[in-house]
């Protein structure tokens, strides 16, 4: 295949080297949450709330027994009492309980009118149609008062939160059958490179299989995005790349590509994207892995788009996804918290630092109860060679430890900050 190298590529200027924090700020600054839509509660799992949700009624909606036993008047004390009736869960009694009478009651049943406490069945003795109450109780004992779990008007869920199984249960409790959530972002994934072939092909000499698209596609799917294009590989030609990007931009809110952004002759993307009208806010970041990294915005006919062109090396692609793209995806989704949680991680062996670039060292986390004078803490076990081509170094990575550049080694026992990747 022959290649025409555009002027812009052959005479390319070196873009400024930005810090990770600067690029993250720019990404968050340009990313606006998706519009909202109404969905049924049953469809809301994994969606992000667009407004806070309050209860309209108290829960429990009636004073309920927390025990199987006898509903009593606390002031009647111990003694032998007539059983006036039965209050079973789901079958409230129709009578008002008289003084010095009791009602058999099961857990969850409404307390009969006139009663004010419940004596556990273990503290009673059956005597035919009477019962001996062997302990005294206080008013309210073993009763869940109306609204004691959820008051009417209480906030259940804030805006910008992912609906999980517990939230679903709470919303169901509160009788909320529809809710306002953010639309799911549509994301296109595109691999580029003449050497890259589909994973189901036998590579010719000089070719390698595409691992970036399957990885990124499934990371995005785990995050709840709608992903497409993951089977598309664009060649390193202007025409092919332009066509692939144009299609991706017209069908999605955010486009992620890998490859073609470093300094080689066939790294055509930065110039091409500018030529297509993209505004580039980052081209090079001071980090390892992942120095070449394009973040751009495009004012497309079909609306504003975000575009991320990641480096092709599989680890660089995944690390820049975690450090940058994931923030944009979360902000698009409407999540209030876009950044990864951070934790302190103890370095269990001396590590060499990079002399120039801050590095994200991949580790698996092991909880050590002895650390920090018995309080406990995480040791970060290195995943081995940190080569940016070695995807195996990401396989068991729970966290990315932030290692500042320098000449001296990181000594055993040093505690460093790490991005905790275990929560999606
Ligand atoms: P590039 O960023 O295009 O210079 O590519 C850097 C390295 O990543 C090269 O060794 C590529 O062969 C490799 N690479 C590029 N794209 C992919 C991909 N989709 N899957 C696996 N490796 C890739
Ligand atoms: Mg390439």
Mean pLDDT: 96
Given as residue ranges, the uncertain stretches (5+ residues, pLDDT < 50) are none
Number of strands: 27
What gross morphology would you assign? elongated
In terms of structural class, how would the helical and strand content be classed? alpha/beta
The rounded distance between the terminal residues' Cα atoms is 42 Å
Helix content: 10-25%
Strand content: 25-35%
Summed up, the helix count is 9
Characterise this structure.
- The protein is of the alpha/beta class.
- It is built from nine helices and 27 strands.
- A hairpin with a 2-residue loop joins strand 9 (124-127) and strand 10.
- Helix 2 (20-30) runs parallel beside helix 7 and helix 4 (212-223) runs parallel beside helix 7.
- The mean pLDDT is 96.
- The site of adenosine monophosphate (AMP) has 19 residues, from loops.
- Adenosine monophosphate (AMP) binds at residues 191, 193, 195-196, 208, 210-212, 258-262, 264, 267, 311-314.
């Amino acid at each position: 295949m022959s290649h025409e190298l555009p002027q812009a590529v052959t005479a390319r200027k070196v873009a400024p080297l930005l810090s990770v924090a600067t690029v993250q700020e720019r990404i968050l600054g340009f990313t606006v949450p998706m519009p909202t839509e109404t969905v049924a509660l049953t469809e809301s799992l994994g969606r992000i709330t667009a407004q806070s949700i309050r209860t309209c009624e108290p829960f429990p909606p009636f004073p309920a027994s927390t025990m199987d036993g006898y509903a009593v008047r606390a002031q009647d004390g111990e003694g032998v009492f007539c059983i006036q009736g039965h209050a079973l869960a789901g079958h409230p009694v129709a009578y008002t309980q008289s003084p010095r009478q009791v009602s058999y009651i099961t857990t969850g049943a409404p307390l009969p009118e006139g009663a004010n406490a419940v004596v556990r069945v273990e503290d009673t003795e059956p005597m035919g149609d009477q019962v001996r109450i062997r302990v005294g109780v206080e008013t309210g004992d073993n009763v869940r008062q109306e609204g004691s779990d959820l008051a009417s008007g209480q906030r259940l869920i804030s805006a910008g939160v992912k609906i999980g199984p517990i939230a679903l249960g709470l919303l169901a409790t509160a009788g909320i059958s529809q809710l306002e959530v953010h639309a799911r972002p549509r994301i296109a994934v595109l691999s580029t490179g003449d050497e890259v072939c589909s994973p189901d092909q036998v590579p010719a000499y000089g070719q390698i299989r595409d691992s970036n698209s399957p990885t990124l596609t499934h990371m995005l799917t785990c995050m709840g995005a709608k992903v497409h294009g993951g089977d598309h590989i664009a060649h390193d030609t202007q025409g092919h790349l332009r066509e692939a990007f144009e299609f991706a931009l017209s069908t999605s809110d955010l486009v992620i590509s890998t490859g073609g952004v470093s300094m080689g002759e066939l790294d055509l993307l930065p110039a091409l994207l500018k030529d297509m009208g993209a505004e580039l806010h980052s081209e090079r970041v001071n980090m390892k892995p992942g120095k070449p990294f394009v973040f751009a915005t495009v004012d497309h006919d079909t609306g504003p788009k975000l575009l991320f062109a990641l480096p092709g090396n599989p680890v660089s692609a995944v690390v820049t996804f975690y450090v940058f793209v994931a923030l944009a995806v979360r902000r698009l989704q409407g999540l209030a918290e876009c950044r990864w949680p951070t934790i302190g991680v103890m370095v269990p062996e001396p590590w060499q630092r990079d002399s120039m670039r801050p590095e994200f060292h991949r580790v698996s986390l092991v909880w050590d109860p002895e650390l920090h004078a018995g309080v406990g803490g995480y040791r970060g076990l290195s995943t081995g060679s940190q080569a940016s081509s070695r995807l195996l170094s990401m396989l068991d990575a729970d966290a990315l430890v932030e290692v500042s550049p320098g000449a001296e080694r990181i000594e055993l026992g040093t505690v460093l900050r790490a991005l905790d990747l275990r929560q999606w």
